[in-house]
Design brief:
CATH architecture: Alpha-Beta Complex
CATH superfamily: Oxidoreductase, molybdopterin-binding domain
Radius of gyration: 19 Å
Strand content: 15-25%
Order of helices and strands: HHEHHEEHEEHEEHEEEEHEEH
CATH topology: Sulfite Oxidase, Chain A, domain 2
CATH class: Alpha Beta
Number of domains: 1
Structural class: alpha+beta
Helix content: 10-25%
Length: 312
């Protein structure tokens, strides 16, 4: 597999998340904006706001990080196109502020929440995750995120909430890939409730200590490290608590290849390629793929008694 060279286009010029979250820093960031406007060719995307006081999660791996340019240039985001370079090349026009998230279904606190209110008042942390994508390539990425269980608990899901369904923004004007019937848009993903509430699952709002670039799923995306590449929905606009198992977009498009659970499982081949080995971005040689992406000790009990060759 060839790795496409990064585009020269910068990530979208977006309002820094910390400005949105911490109004007391407004004057400081406004000064940065004013300075940038006086300098030819300089934008906020070229001088990105950094997250501060991040705590590294004890759930993080100590493996070497994948370079930032690779992480932000080699992406799957079909809303912008099927090529790995399409998201960076075409995603810079998407507006990520203002942004709201609708919360629906079996919960006591449904409603439409501004992003700030959806993720408040939780503490951001850095999670360095080992991640294997579908096509047998892998990365190690330092995400800035919030434990998903902390966010979901705020909406008080009821006993009928067995699953969580996530939906991506539908806007073909901003997301040109949605003009083509690659999938039945908008993109939909789902998790069983215990998967969503597991401590490893996060809502990500940044990476490498910076605001999440558009091509990586700004301003809010899912990161489930033992399912990465399968359960990686981006630019989330709706979260719904359901009693029935939601039909995911890829499961609907190709049920022979993609099931609901979609764990990283080297013992179950994809119909079109082996999942037993993977190539870390930047490496020449392949390595053995780890069960559940190396997180078996933490998550294998979630699937006790299941036949993962059938319930994939």
């Amino acid at each position: 597999m060839l790795i496409n060279k990064p585009s020269d286009i910068r990530p979208s010029e977006i309002t820094p998340y910390e400005l949105y979250r911490e109004r007391r820093r407004f004057l400081q960031t406004s000064a940065l904006v004013a300075t940038a406007s006086l300098l030819p060719g300089l934008s906020l995307a070229e001088a990105p706001e950094k997250f501060t006081d991040l705590e590294k999660s004890p759930l993080s791996t100590d493996e070497p990080l994948t370079p930032y340019e690779d992480v932000t240039s080699y992406c799957n985001f079909y809303e912008f196109g099927t090529g790995k370079s399409d998201p960076k090349r075409l995603g810079h026009n998407m507006e990520t502020r203002p942004w709201s998230v609708a919360v629906e279904g079996h919960c006591a606190r449904p409603g439409v929440y501004d992003l700030e209110d959806f993720i408040e008042p939780h503490t951001l942390e850095e999670r360095i995750y080992r991640l294997r994508c579908v096509e047998a390539w892998s990365m190690v990425i330092p995400w800035v995120g919030i434990p998903m269980n902390e966010v979901l608990k705020r909406f008080e899901p009821t006993g009928n909430a067995k699953y969580v369904k996530f939906t991506t923004l539908l806007d073909p004007e901003q997301m040109p890939g949605q003009r083509y019937p690659i999938l039945d848009w908008p993109y939909v993903e789902g998790l069983r409730m215990d998967e969503a509430m597991h401590p490893l699952s996060i809502f990500a709002v940044g990476l490498y200590g910076e605001v999440l670039p558009n091509q990586n799923g700004a301003p809010l995306r899912l990161v489930v490290p033992w399912k990465y590449g399968f359960k990686s929905i981006k630019s989330i606009v709706k979260v719904e608590f359901t009693e029935e198992e939601p039909l995911n977009s890829w499961q609907q498009s190709s049920p022979r290849e993609y099931g609901f659970y979609a764990n990283v499982n080297p013992e179950v081949d994809h119909p079109r390629w082996s999942q037993a080995r993977e190539r870390r971005i930047g490496d020449f040689f392949k390595r053995d793929t780890l069960m559940f992406n190396g997180y078996a000790d933490q998550v294998a009990q979630l699937y006790s008694g299941m036949d993962l060759s059938q319930q994939f």
